[in-house]
Amino acid sequence: MEGGVVEADVSAFRECLSLSWKNPYVLRLAFSAGIGGFLFGYDTGVISGALLYIRDDFKDVDRKTWLQEAIVSMALAGAIVGAAVGGWINDRFGRKKAILIADTLFFIGSAIMASAMNSSILIVGRVFVGLGVGMASMASPLYISEASPTRVRGALVSLNGFLITGGQFLSYLINLVFTKVPGTWRWMLGVAAVPALLQIALMITLPESPRWLYRKGREEEAKALLRRIYPLDEAEAEINTLKESVELEIKEGESSDKHSIIKMLKTKTVRRGLYAGMGLQIFQQFVGINTVMYYSPAIIQLAGFASNQTALLLSLVTSGLNAFGSILSIYFIDKTGRKKLLLFSLSGVVMSLVVLTVVFHESSTHSPMISVVETSHFNNTCPDYSTVVNPAGWDCMKCLKASPDCGFCASGANKLLPGACLISNDITKDECHKEHRLWYTRGCPSKYGWLAIIGLALYIIFFSPGMGTVPWVVNSEIYPLRYRGICGGMASTSNWVSNLIVAQSFLSLTQAIGVSWTFMIFIFITVAAIIFVIIFVPETKGLPMEEVENMLERRSLNFRFWQRSSDSGEVLAQKT
């Protein structure tokens, strides 16, 4: 059935599982490339725990907040450059070489970080790791997509998403494991070199993407590989479709010597693909996911949980739910389709953000009062509280917002009863703990704390299967072959730039306008994302990659998102 639509339903998931014995070679290709996603996820999660111990070893990092921010953000800056350059490398040298270069950069960066003797060398290592992560973030799903049978393409690219979330989960687990080991943060950051070496060993033995091979004139290699990937009765049809697509590209390319960026953007199919691809990547970050992943310990403390260990343990739970959601995506993406999964995901995110907004509003407006008696029990009262005219109107939240030098020592009888507003330092913290009281510097005791945990859990469960994986799947299949690398690089770059903006602004926003209003902003952005998906994102479920371009050429805005475009179905059926 040449060029026909493959009906992807629940059987696609079963077929994906059956590959383990029917055609393990396809799973080997997907898993080997997907290790790049694991590295991506591990690095985004590990730094939050490692930074606590880096501050103990490097006093300049402990004293200077901008150094802490630099250690986190330089990897993101490196990822932006890596994703941008990676698009060109993917098109020029191939998907396989791009992955190998990414692994090499990641290995070098891990080695530099693990052996760093000062903060400057550590930052250099973070830049190398960022370059590798940025390059891998678009090369891995692209390779998997081009080396997967159409029927299970979505599920196999979602495997990359699962490995991203699996890497994040493992990073939190390793943070806990290595807390008692000498060299703590060096092990946390250095252990990432192991999967990078593993991927290098696996990828060296694997071929290049069949579509890239065909594009570069290595037709026999591409045909042989497609015959290994597809069943015999489908392989020839796929080869013919690919041949037609490449011949059309070559014919179009004869009118100009080079494909300039301007010409690329003037091409309707590319422009429509970039609207959808870059828009999804930007919204993936701006609905707030990395505020949850990077700052989940801080958010949990803001919800009223004072213990670092409790915050880290609950963060491990949220990352575990993230990985579970990725497994759900593998099952549903070829059953429900990309667009419906996105809309379901975003609707659930709105609901979860409403819960978080209400919980944090209630927590901030109903925090425990400050007791003059409790405060005078200690000899180190917060200066801002000592000079206030009307201390009776102060509560825990007002104490913490008054100055970074103020902390709240909860009542020993019940943490929700009036407590003390004291100077925030290690001596005061120890005195508070000696009396078996809880010490708060980020958030205040609240009876609504567990609702915040439920809100976070719901957010992850809804986000991960849809917005967590679908943007990467769509970007791996929506662009014309001749522009697939450069467009994928542009989309990945937009993701990392958005990631950097959100990560650097979240804590500042919570301090400026409060946590509840910050989550309210995310609600408005998520509603905008729903409208964007309805208008701009096409459904690519079951479409052979060479037919996606034809669909974009014909597609008009369709608000009836629950219906498959009859136009694309009819035209594709004519090619049968």
Instruction: Please report the total strand number as a whole number.
Output: 3
Succession of helices and strands:
HHHHHHHHHHHHHHHHHHHHEEHEHHHHHH
Question: Span from first to last CA?
Answer: 5 Å
* Low-confidence sequence ranges: 1-10, 565-576
Integer-rounded radius of gyration: 26 Å
Largest sheet composition: 3 strands, antiparallel
Strand order of the largest sheet: 2-1-3
Choose one word for the global shape.
Answer: elongated
Secondary structure class reads mainly alpha
Helix percent band: over 70%
- Report the sheet-strand fraction: under 5%
Mean pLDDT: 81
Number of helical stretches of at least 4 residues: 27
Structural summary, described in words:
Helix content is 74%, strand content 2%. With 576 residues, the protein is an all-alpha fold. Strands 2-1-3 form a three-stranded antiparallel β-sheet. The chain is elongated and about 85 Å long. Mean pLDDT is 81; it is low at 1-10 and 565-576.
Output the keywords:
576 residues; mainly alpha; 3-stranded antiparallel beta sheet; 27 helices; elongated; disordered N terminus; disordered C terminus
